[in-house]
């Protein structure tokens, strides 16, 4: 009886000493359904009886290679690929059993837990808070699981960019994608959270995944001022929102009580305040969007007051000149008919005083092409100087408002055709103890050739 017990004990310990051991190793237990990626499964087999083996499973899992292999060393290592077959539609955790079979001898079973995930379960698309002042925009694609995805092609689009790229994504890797953005587009885009739409090209077609883009705040108001014009003065003030958040702005223009009468605005002011001789206009604008501008234009038209001023000056100058004029001389000519048909003109000098004047002497000069007719009007010249061709009248003192008319006749036996000009007459007189001189107007006469 004792011997039998020893025999069974020896068999039991021998069996325990020779029991096969299988140690599995695999980098991940995740299979991404959209890419149908496989998992490498490495088995280290020890204490195996030399012979022919194969590895299989009755689950909806494909194990390759499926051919038999020989184990003739200890330990023995072999790598297989695990992937779901087309019948497996399950998503999430999936446990299955695989069997190491020694043909015709014994079988050894082990279990493995797989995680069957879709692409959107392991991909995160987002960005850090983007600083608008840096002018640089980027976002990232993060792998949330310990699985490798190679040669991924995807298109990303948002309010700021559209970009297509191909990249590899390692286990738990965050891949950053920098993009070029137009500065003007970045400047006018408000701060906030925006959607990043993406399309991944997978083994089973296109897969759409959404992410988030975070655009940080930037504040700043740019003020532009311009003044132009002389008689029509234009003052333009522009406030530009240089940030990416809504802003409230104010514009202030000050005018005096005179200029305000001739000033108009492109926008009616929000508030008007008068202080002493100045008037303050205030404009306010709420919710000025990024890159938006608010312009106030003030136009002051001084043309009308300038014209009024010029007319007033002319009136004053004319009145002063009229008031200060002591003697006025007007010279005129009229043609005279003669018996012989000679050219003859009657020259008339009209004098009118505005103030009392003394020792008045009037002189007139005769052009060289004419002669003086010896008969004169009522007032005979005091002197006729043939050499200098001058006629003198000594009129003595004249009272204010007194008028005198002097005339004489000039003629020429030689016909004169065309424009005939007579020089100005000159008067010299005393007033207030001072000597004054004054000229008459110019006189022209147009004589046409007579038809035979």
Explain what this protein looks like in three dimensions.
- With 452 residues, the protein is mostly beta strands.
Q: Report strand order across the widest sheet.
A: 2-9-8-4-6
Radius of gyration, CA atoms, in whole angstroms: 59 Å
Secondary structure class reads: mainly beta
What is the CATH architecture descriptor of the largest domain?
A: Sandwich
CATH class category of the largest domain: Mainly Beta
- Beta fraction of the residues? over 45%
Largest sheet: 5 strands, mixed
| Total of helices | 4
Helix content: 10-25%
User: What name is given to the CATH topology of the largest domain?
Assistant: Immunoglobulin-like
Number of domains: 4
Please report the total strand number as a whole number.
34
Report the principal-axis shape.
Answer: rod-shaped
Unreliable stretches: 4-17
What distance lies between the first and last C-alpha atoms, to the nearest angstrom?
Answer: 186 Å
Q: Mean of the pLDDT scores?
A: 86
């Amino acid at each position: 009886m004792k011997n039998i017990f020893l025999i069974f004990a020896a068999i039991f310990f021998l069996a325990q000493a020779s029991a096969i051991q299988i140690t599995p190793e695999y980098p991940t237990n995740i299979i991404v359904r959209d890419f149908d990626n496989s998992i490498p499964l490495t088995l280290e087999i020890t204490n195996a009886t030399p012979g022919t083996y194969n590895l299989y499973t009755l689950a909806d899992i494909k194990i390759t290679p499926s051919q038999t292999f020989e184990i003739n060393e200890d330990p023995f290592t072999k790598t297989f690929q695990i992937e779901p077959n087309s019948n497996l539609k399950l998503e999430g955790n999936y446990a299955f059993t695989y069997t190491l079979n020694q043909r015709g001898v014994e079988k050894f079973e082990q279990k493995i837990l797989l995680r069957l995930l879709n692409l959107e379960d392991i991909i995160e698309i987002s960005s850090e808070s983007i600083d608008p002042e840096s002018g640089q925009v980027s976002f990232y694609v993060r792998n949330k699981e310990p699985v490798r995805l190679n040669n991924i092609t995807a298109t990303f689009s948002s309010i700021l960019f559209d970009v297509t790229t191909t990249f590899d994504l390692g286990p738990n890797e965050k891949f950053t994608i920098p993009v070029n953005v137009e500065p003007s587009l970045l400047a006018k885009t408000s701060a906030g959270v925006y959607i990043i739409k993406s399309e991944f090209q997978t083994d089973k077609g296109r897969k759409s995944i959404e992410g988030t883009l975070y655009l940080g705040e930037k504040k700043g108001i740019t003020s532009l001022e311009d003044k132009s014009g002389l008689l029509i003065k234009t003052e333009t003030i522009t406030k530009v929102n240089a940030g990416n958040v809504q802003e409230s702005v104010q514009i202030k223009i000050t005018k005096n009580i005179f200029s305000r009468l001739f000033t108009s605005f492109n926008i009616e002011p929000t508030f008007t305040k008068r202080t002493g001789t100045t008037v303050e206009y205030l404009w306010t604008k709420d919710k000025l969007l990024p890159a938006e501008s608010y312009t106030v234009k003030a136009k002051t038209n001084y043309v009308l007051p300038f014209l009024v001023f010029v007319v007033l000056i002319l009136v004053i100058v004319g009145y002063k000149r009229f008031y200060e004029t002591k003697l006025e001389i007007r010279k005129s000519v009229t043609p005279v008919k003669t018996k012989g048909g000679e050219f003859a003109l009657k020259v008339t000098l009209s004098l009118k005083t505005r103030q009392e004047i003394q020792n008045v002497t009037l002189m007139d000069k005769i052009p060289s092409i004419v002669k003086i007719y010896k008969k004169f009007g009522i007032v005979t010249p005091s002197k006729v100087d043939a050499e200098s061709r001058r006629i003198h009248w000594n009129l003595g003192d004249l009272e204010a408002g007194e008028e005198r008319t002097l005339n004489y006749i000039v003629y020429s036996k030689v016909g004169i055709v065309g424009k005939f000009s007579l020089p100005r007459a000159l008067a010299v007189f005393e007033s207030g103890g001072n000597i004054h001189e004054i000229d008459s107007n110019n006189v022209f006469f147009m004589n046409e050739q007579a038809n035979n």
